Amino acid sequence: MFTGLYEMPWWGYVAYTLVVTHITIAAVTIFLHRHQAHRALDLHPIPSHFFRFWLWLTTGMITKEWAAIHRKHHAKCETAEDPHSPQIHGIKKVFWEGAELYRKESANKETLDRYGHGTPDDWIERNLYSRYNILGISALLVLNFVLFGFIGITIWAVQMIWIPLLAAGVINGIGHFWGYRNFQPADASRNIVPWGILIGGEELHNNHHAYGTSAKLSNAWYEFDIGWLYICVLKSLGLAELKKIAPKLKLAPAKPQCDHETLQAIVTHRYEVITGYAKSVRKTCADEIAALRSSAVSVDWSRLKRWLHSDTSALTAPEREQREQVIKASTKLATVYTMRDELAALWQRSAASKEQLVHQLEDWCKRAEASGIEALQNFSRRLRCYA
Prior knowledge:
18 helices
């Protein structure tokens, strides 16, 4: 049996496979995702072309197609036009057939024309990478066989399923279905685990959807984004230039009157604000539900918690009706949920002037502090510290 030019122990083949597949993951997250799709950083031509060549060799993906489909995913997230939402297509479909959904959308010329702007269009892209995208992975198959013999074909097979399984299946599927949320954007994105290593930091998917143009995907102190580590190394070598990262919340002494700076800080950190609101009033709601149950009023606490994180417009008609019934049963819950909706409306009223929005914010804070609900009072005082 032909064993190739290099024969290694079994662990050597495993190590080699993990290294080359990890380079592919790094190319996807740094080049395709953060650089091309979101323009969160600029890459020097050397790493930029290396990543483009490596992706042609190991995946056959076309940069314009990937960037366009991903941008459409953000623009149409969790709607019927989302190319790969598990909320629409089902988790099994996206997990096991995510690559098929990608290929189907890549044939949509309207998607490529509308969302594929600004991607490479040089001679080598037009005449090699895009035109002969299958040639790269075919060359890799031959190379693996020459280097390692028949075990090289197995390594090649692993390389071929690595991105479809982890990126198309895990990130696009599980990343919108299961995990924890630091922020509450209007989609179902989740952080799968707090340590973004195996998939280059893409595991922190909720953070990414909250701040889509950030080059750094980790947010909390306990989160780690290995893709960001690589970007920092490239930056230190002069091979990358950062354009955007997620803003950090700054707190100043509380202001007696909300101003434009307070409003801007709240709008900038709106997903964090609404998450903080839900956490602040959670105990108040739980205590009120316990009191209602003692009065023989049936309340589903799991639904109430979810409603704290969801805009009214995102609820189904039956859910809105159920929420109204709960609100009618409790003045305290009515205040909590009404104030939540009014707070979220501050960054949804695009027709209002800044002066009007500042006035509405100040009015909201005054009513929260006069509500008699301690959680609301404390939350309002914290909002006045936003800077």
